[in-house]
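haha ok so turns out i had the wrong file open the whole time. this is the CORRECT one, sorry everyone. sequence first:
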Amino acid sequence: MSKSAAQDGAFSITAGTAIETILSLTSIDRLDVRILLMHALSLSRAQLITQSHRALTDTEAQQVSRLFQRRIAGEPIAYIVGEREFYGLPLHVTPDVLIPRPDTELLVELALEKLPVHGSLLDMGTGSGAIAIAVAHSRADANVTALDQSSAALAIARGNAERHDVKVRFIQSDWYSALSNECFNVIAANPPYIPEHDIHLTQGDLRFEPISALTDHADGLTALNTIADGAARHLAPGGWLLMEHGYNQASSVRSLLAARGFNDVRSWSDLAGIERVTGGRISSIVQACT
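then structure:
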């Protein structure tokens, strides 16, 4: 089969041979090919194997072609299929929210570790709801609140919470502005931290993700500073602030937390050995909320 024929949707082949054909004609890796075929044909992984000799109908061939053209153009798999797994939970995603990434699971693990029984957690800039939903799913005793400035993101997050039957309170808010005097045991945040001129913003999946959820349009530390500035007014005595950040920002984030009187300031590394989350505990010399 010629490359032009494949691009025109002329997949007069079986589901099984489609995988090898697409692999030979494109640079898409095998896992992505399988995921897209499963989505296009509405098949599970097991069904894709057991039905590998079934010939594609014209309609299916056209659907396969459309999806693969989107991937060839660079669109993220998660947006094409509308889903990404995070902390073992499938979450609906669209270009209105960031695609949840495995690195952020470290933030969830730390939040769960620091959260006391029947404790309260605030997820700042929730996006798809990944962090809040993962915590609420793991800890039914927790009181979880999630906020985001984007109404579109909140709609997606609410749908994901309903899908997994977890209780999360969602608030539309520009950081702390809508919270009044509420207190939390843990504040967790994965804010925009990529500097505005970082080359990565023009590469890969990031080209398709919401720009304001990726960068602060400055040095990458603006949102991190804003969250740290307001944390004391919303952390219960002894509460923890945990923030995800860029691969080279750990030292700067430790410094900004120490400058605001946080205790036990430290950074934690992700599975790649990169310092990915930095946090601290509200100090007794800082006025915490009550």
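Residues 58-72 form the longest helix (15 residues).
again sry for the mixup
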